[in-house]
Please model this.
Amino acid sequence: MALKVTEFFGFTPLDPAARPYVEGLKCPFVDGKCIKPEHGACSVEPLTLAEPVICCPNRMYGEGFLALKDLAQEAFGSGCTLIRPNEAQDRIAGLGDPLTGNEVVVFGKYWGKELPLPRPKGKGAKTASAYYVDWVLARLDAAGDLSEIIAVEVQTIDTTGSYRDQSETFFQGRAYADASGRIPGFSNAGMNWENVNKRILPQLIYKGHVLRREELCRKGLFFVCPKQVYDRIRDRLGGHLHDYRPGQGTITFRSYELGVEGAAGTHRTMTLHGQFTTTVDQVALAFTSPMNLPDADVYAAAIRNALNR
Model:
């Protein structure tokens, strides 16, 4: 278990272009405060993978919220334009440019307004956040009425162990060498891949069921994640899911990957890696009835082998 930091406050560690962000503990991708200021890592590279893995959700919003723009184009057509809720309110009230029917209002953090949802009554109130999503994109018609919505969930992957030793060295402006003398070095940390099973898939199944009851959510739930999370989800679900067009009751898995290290002062590019769409029911069935199981009696065989029997 070992990894190294590949992006520190948006740039290759020790890149001079990162200095204003490091000193201000700011994120270059959302123009706001870093949400992990003690570590500052946007992506890391596990020794066993030899490729960068996005570990901070805000890194998914690189290139001017490219992931949201791509989704809006796919869901609502190439002519759509993303606008903030306050701009939508003004234009509905007749202030500014008239609406054309191609405007998509973005509700979510960093876009001026998150969508306030009612809390469930009774016992469900304690788990109200279970059906919240990170982003809601709402298309308006030319009269300002709500035409269609899509829901977007964004997840990266957590780390286990600690790479604070690297971060502290980078904060001091020095290169990091590990116990083996490697520069750049690796810390005793890894990726929490088990979160795919424990947290990500159960949440998506629940939220997918909630959204299939929304009349205007005609293209279902979209899940945006790094390439490596996407690959593990496909592996966990067995690779035998039927493919569907986005529609009510579907989940569309969409992944991005980072490019190679570029010139000094630049960010790694983020490009679309893969996409597949299936139904909430297919995901739930595959999650509870996995097909990629080991051979029968694998435990007994392991015990006999351990006892030399």
Notes: The CA atoms of residues 80 and 203 lie 29 Å apart.
